[in-house]
Amino acid sequence: MPKVFNWQLGREMSYPYEEHHPDRQFAFVFNLNRCIGCQTCTMACKSTWTFSKGQEFMWWNNVETKPYGGYPQFWDVKILKLLEEASGESQRWNNDVYQGKTIFEAAEKHVGPEPQQVLGYLPTDEEWRFPNIYEDTPVGKPGAPMTFDQTGTSLPEHATWFFYLARICNHCTYPGCLAACPRKAIYKRPEDGIVLIDQKRCRGYRKCVEACPYKKAMYRPSTRVSEKCIACYPRIEGKDPEAGGRPMETRCMAACIGQIRLQGLVKINTDGSWTEDRYNPIYYLVKVAKVALPLYPQFGTAPNGFYIPPRWVPRGYLKQMFGPGVDEAIDAYLAPSRELLAVLQLFRRTNRIIFRYEIQEGPKVYETERHGKPFVMYNDTIIGFGEDGKELIRTQVEEPFHVRPATHQNSI
What percent of the chain lies above the pLDDT cut of 70? Predict the structure, then answer.
C-alpha cells in the first residue's frame, strides 16, 4: 500500500490510495460535558434525511450511552477486538505517536475467506435494530455493575458513571468506506472534504458498511444501495432557503438543545495537515487549546469529528477512546484560559458557520481556585464572523440577566 501521513497518529501509515486532499475540510467539535441525551439532533436528522421506506433502522445521527450502548450494538468493542487479533499487537502509544496497527495495516495481515483492503465486519440485522439499547445504564462499583454509588462521589472521576456520545459520520481524511469500495463509488468533495456515495455507481456490495469502523455507512434494502450522512451539504453551500447564501451548520448541529456542537471548515495542506488559522474556532479548540480530541484515532482514518472528553469518566477508558491527550484536554477544560472560556460561548449561538472570531476584553468578574489551579473569569465579548467577513454573532462570557416588571399576579 502507498504511505500517507496521519497527523493524529504522529506518523506515516499504509492507505490504498496516494495522498490527496481537499482545499478545506468539514470538521466539528462536540462538548460531551454538555450533552443531555435528549436526541433532538437525532430526530432533526431523521425527519430531514431518513424518513422513507427502507430507512427505518438508518440513523445517520445517533446518541449512545457509553460504556454499554452502541449503534450498531457494541460496534467499537468489536472493531477494537478485531484490530488486536489481526495485528497481534496492543493499541499502544509512545508519547503522541501510535505504535500499533491501523485498520488498513492490520488488513494486510488478515487471514480470512477473501482479502480485505480494510479490517472490518458486517453487523447483524439484530445489531442495527436497537439504537437506544442500554440508554442511561451506568457502570457501578467493582462487583456491582449497573448500580449507582449510594455514598456519592466527587470530581475528577466518578465511581459510578456513564456519558452520552453523540455521533455522525466523521468525514474522515482517510475514509475506510472509500478505501474498501470496489466500485469506487465513494469520494471526498474537493471543496469541503465531505464524503459521499455516488448512488449510480453503488451496487450494494456493503464493503463500505463492513469497512467503516464507526459504522456510519448503511445499506438500504429497498434500493439495494448504501447511504450515509451527507453533512447537509446544501446548507454548507448556502443553498438552504433560510441561508441567504451563507454557509449554514447541519440540521443536527442547529437543533442541539444542550449547545454541545460547533461546526466549521478548516484549511488543509497538501500533506493532510491543517493550515494554521489561529482564529478559526475549530482550529483553536483542536490545535491551540488542544481541548478537543478525535474519536478512536488508532483506527487510522483521521476522523474530522472532535470531542471535548467528559471530565467525570475514568481516564483509562477515555484514553482508549480519544488517545493520549485526554489528561491535558480535561485539565484545560476544568480551569479554562480566558480565551478558551470565551470561545466556548460560540457553541450554538448561531446556525451560520463561524470562520473567524475576535475577543473584546471585559472586566474581571470572578476569581477563585479550581482543582488546584487559579481561575479568573472576565466578562469578555466574543464576536464571530462569516466567510464574507461580516459579523454573525456577538455574545458575552456572562449571560445577561433580565428582570421582568411585575405586571400581574403570576409575575416572577
Answer: 97
